[in-house]
């Protein structure tokens, strides 16, 4: 409480000093640009986004020169603890009291939906890099919400198709019991069924489950060819490790991790993870540009970037570009500009942002290397094939977003 | 539903049940003697797991001690450290509250829980850190006919059962135990017979805390080690103790095992209710048999 | 007399708070303050420790959210519906719990609250982990737009003052005197011919209703009903607030709620150290200052006067 009072005073002083020389550029509504990184800083998704996202955002700002339109760019960050109410109230305070101009990260779909809805009321752009649910760009799409890295439509396209074609016809789902898991399960099920496969069962596990054994045994006794993990982060890691302990893979069933990050593979180790196929938007050593950026990131963060970290860097950079080119931080103008830009950097090639908020870009089907193939601690993934943007994401013509159709 | 599935899930339920039994045993012993609900019991369980984790992989990094405490040593070291903490808590704090309403004991230990959880949450991920020190001898699986069961889990079940029933035997069939029981039933009279009740109380608290620490070490290789691993567990263990009958040793053990089984089987038939079924039972027991299934009406 | 001065102080502070603090945050504090006051009525004046008050706080939030969002109730009507739900729930909980004493009472309320938590997680209308999102703030009496945070603030403050007033009246009524007599010595109250169970039940229902009022209001402020509000840790938090502020004092819970709320907010950058600090304060209170902040102050004042 006291803090705000002091800040109120301070900002009055700043405004007074700014007003005096009337030459200052007046395009930014509050004299500065503030970017909020709202992420899971302590829980299941910490490794894949969390503090690394703050590092990525800071790198983007530094690489941009630390300022835009001659005004400083600041980063503010907080932990949403995977609780949508905490996420929403933090975002509300950021927008009301801290004058945040753009919010990014937002892993956890429940949090993402609540913050995107709130930001829409307040006309603030959200550039979501962490959450998966397609609802963000489908029935709950907003004019200010951008979904940047991946969604639950893009994930199964490559992975599930590959697995069904390799003979995995019957599927059993272990689903994270919230917006993301449900959305991923439904979209994956649709892909499987469209290819002639069959969904034979499903069990919902709470977010942040530490013992998957009971769910895994149910999956095992279903006799399905494929046990599909519609979860993420530490949950996926735990499930795969425990499947290994109970010798489920050894008994002939295949595990499908629908959303796997390089940090998960690193924490499981290649012995357990080898051969696992999944879909990703970014592999740190996929080309020289990505590698150069990733090594800089590694120096600061101590781990190689996930696709989400790279996505935060790219999103912040492109947002700053749009602000600079339009000369304002007005959300409508900046959002319109972002929609016109063709995005090209170390993360995305020829990307574009659709009116429903989907950032259209290629995805990759990758496979975890065998221990013998890996050349270094983080050399873990091999690209199997590229999934073209048009296939990965829902075409605008089929979108259920009210803004489009 | 095939018999095989039910057997497999029952075994997993038993796996959970032994942890309930060990924790509720400690809680019941403490309640029996001190009339205090030790809210910090879950935090002590967590502490046990963290001592094992730190002892195995962080001593050098954190304290510059080039020593590694393996799993077997942790089974001894962790309960002792947690027990010592228990002595400190009892001597320095709880002791001053005995004259007051029992609720203050609950509140004090709730505060201690917040402190312990907060401390570890600063340094460790709340979603858990894997414990790397599982002994080689216990890795692998055992073919039970109806399923492959990880050797370590089997070991944890057997080991916990031995500890639980040994504790029960000591309390019911030795001189030490009979004094303890006398202290539980009538502290004033016991004191009058010249037994050092305060010392007994302290040691009992330390023992209960040590059991929680031991359970923590056993749990570390199965579940990841997390600052919040005891937080939700403690609420369930309360329910176990209430259902078994507060202060009843055998009640705590048997209801711990039984409720683990119930929970495991609920996971098969209606998974969402698995974490709540125990509370349904608790309400029923409190309504119809307030002293618990094994407790005596006071 | 001191109470009157404190009350005026509280009114002035409440009316001017939005001038120097972020209104939404103060509204949050007010909700918790009311919640703590309601809890205090039960523990501080009737001597009953409920470990399940989050069920009323969170349960009411869901009901309010649902009726305003899906049935188009106005905010005030929605809040009343939430509080009404908490009242009914309180009557049911109370009926089952008051037959037990002390620790057992706490355990029954805890178990019942866990069942409510389960329902909040599983019932289709609550949205499970996602929570009930997008609750409209709407227009008060169909006229005053509550989307403006200042009007919202004064609406919330009015609710707080009314809730606080009810509690104050209850404590200082003959009913309140009997409650305190029961707390001091139940068997004596019984022998004086009071229907002890009846009094306890009524106290429980009033407490639950007002806890529900606080939770319902919170749902409208944040346009959100979420599992956090119904979780047992929220039941723990309200105990913490009440005890720190002063058990069995009129203003203690308000002070406790503001202190705990402000501490967790201001120190949030320090992550889990907040928990360590709160836990330490709590332990110190239990060990040394069992009367809480207001209780100790009152003692100092009365000692000086005496």
Description:
The complex is a heterotrimer of chains A (about 400), B (about 300) and C (about 300). With about 400 residues, chain A is of the alpha/beta class. Chain A has helices at about 1-20, 50-65, 85-95, 110-120, 155-165, 180-195, 215-220, 235-245, 260-270, 270-275, 290-300, 305-325, 330-340, 390; strands at about 35-40, 65-70, 70-80, 100-105, 125-130, 145, 170-175, 200-205, 225-230, 255, 275-280, 350-355, 360, 365-370, 380-385. In chain A, strand 9 (about 225-230), helix 8 (about 235-245) and strand 10 form a beta-alpha-beta unit. In chain A, helix 3 (about 85-95) runs parallel beside helix 4 (about 110-120) and helix 8 packs parallel to helix 9 (about 260-270). Residues about 1-25 of chain A have low confidence and may be disordered. Chain B has helices at about 5-35, 40-55, 60-65, 70-90, 100-125, 150-175, 175-185, 185-190, 195-220, 230-245, 250-270, 275-290, and strands at about 140-145, 150. Chain B has a two-stranded antiparallel ribbon with strand order 1-2. In chain B, strand 1 and strand 2 form a beta hairpin. In chain B, helix 1 crosses helix 10, helix 4 (about 70-90) packs antiparallel against helix 9 and helix 6 crosses helix 7. With about 300 residues, chain C is mostly helical. Chain C has a single domain (about 1-305), classed as ABC transporter involved in vitamin B12 uptake, BtuC, CATH 1.10.3470. Chain C has 14 helices and four strands. Chain C has a two-stranded antiparallel sheet. Chain C has a two-stranded antiparallel ribbon with strand order 2-3. In chain C, a hairpin with a 3-residue loop joins strand 2 (about 140) and strand 3 (about 145). The longest helix of chain C is centred in the last third of the chain and has 27 residues, at about 195-220. Classes of the chains: A alpha/beta (about 400), B mainly alpha (about 300), C mainly alpha (about 300).
